[in-house]
Amino acid sequence: MSRFFSEKYSRLVPYTPGEQPRDMEYVKLNTNESPFAPPPSVVEAARREAERLELYPAPEPVELCKKFASSLGVLPTEVIAVNGSDEILDFAFKCFCGKRHPAVFPDITYGFYEVFAEADGVPYEKIPLREDFTVDVDDYVGVGKTVFIANPNAPTGIALPLSDIERIVASNPDNVVVIDEAYVDFGGESAAGLIHKYDNLLVTQTFSKSRSMAGARLGFGIACEELIRDLNTLKYSTNPYNVNRMTQAAGCAVLDEDDLIKENCRTIVSNREYLTAELRSFGFVTTDSSANFVFARHPKISGEELYLELKKRGVLVRHFTGERIKEYCRITVGSAGQIGILLEKTKEILEEKK
User: Which of 73, 75, 232, 291 is deepest in the core (most CB within 10 A)?
Assistant: First the structure.
């Protein structure tokens, strides 16, 4: 880093996104993208707006928020559109955390939570998951801190029932509870309906996974009007034009394709169950995923070796180096064809290990 870099960031370890190599054509199963292209209507909506790039987008995407709110059964004033759900998570750390409101989240979860806490100078605690990688809900009941929980969790894919989420929210009335629902459409239960019951609940969702819009960067926060006003204060103090014209148009269009999106989700869930069963037949141990990925390890090959061997064969999966999960790989649920190639290459690797 340069001699001008601020001291407050000198020890910051940035988040590491999934790799995007371009040295060859890969079967890409490392970043939990959808295997389905966006519907033609979505592409056309974005194309039309691309012809108006000389104009700023609307700082308040009224039509987009209205459609999204309607899909959840909440009011447009109870949602905020953002540049991917990472932005709303960053806003949450800035708005609702501090010395009097430290953050708390699991030790194995989305890596950006710790990065945001460090970047914003927020005191935080990481609570270990149980040995089976499940969240012990009692650890968060009455904890008296700003809670961040991904549900389903990443990279494990394990989901908490809505009753457990409500226990956590109800027991921390003086702190905001943030439920990150990036993968909720693949088998989780959304907590969005609870915002009318609890004024300390913030739910985040993304269009990157189930709605095939990872490249567009669109996410939402869902909360009571007071929390949304707080978040908008920060948005308008940093980047009021945070959702570009094409993304706003594409977001509106994809919300009109709900039947197709739900069908795609059902296909991904079916593919996940098939992939899980096949991996287990190979001797893998997997968690019970409710997301669009499978978290798996094999007793006869390390997670790092499996990742590297698959990469040499043109298949990308995600490997993490954390001590408790270093033997695992996270495998995105792709198309039937992609899964077939993954299983074929995995079988080759395991045969060579005999």
Answer: 291
